[in-house]
């Protein structure tokens, strides 16, 4: 009998029957990264950048906020809230306003607010400064 454990990093660990004195352990790839959803790819890329920059956050925290803010649309623009009425609409996956994006931009990412990885990392950098982590954000921020 085999037990399969799948993680978000797209690797599976198969633990097999005991053979002699040991346990058979092998790794097997799951679906290729090319077939993963764009949102999953963007979050994974952002997490790699964040890790390198010491910015806290988890896949689940980013995903929860991203889906609430933009439903996964990297070119989403909010034209109705108080920011929009003030002339600075929220943009992108994490609905960041231009001044926040510029202030919390993460080195090594694009300066394009609609770039998914740049948008996610800037939003998470801001959330880390303001709330300790994107994981602590459960509503508009």
> What is the strand tally?
3
Low-confidence stretches: 1-34
- Briefly note the structural class of the backbone: alpha+beta
Share of helical residues: 25-40%
Count up the helices: 5
How far is it from the N-terminal to the C-terminal residue, by CA?
47 Å
* Largest sheet geometry: 3 strands, antiparallel
Assembly form of the protein = single chain
Write the layout of secondary structure elements.
Blueprint: E1 3-6, E2 11-19, E3 22-29, H1 38-53, H2 59-70, H3 82-85, H4 98-104, H5 116-131
Antiparallel strand pairs: 1-2, 2-3
Overview of the structural elements:
α1 packs across α5 (116-131) and α4 (98-104) crosses α5 (116-131). β1 (3-6) and β2 form a beta hairpin. Helix content is 39%, strand content 15%. The chain is built from 5 helices and 3 strands, in the order βββααααα. The longest helix is centred in the first third of the chain and has 16 residues, at 38-53. The protein has a 3-stranded antiparallel sheet, with no helix packed on it. With 141 residues, it is an alpha+beta fold.
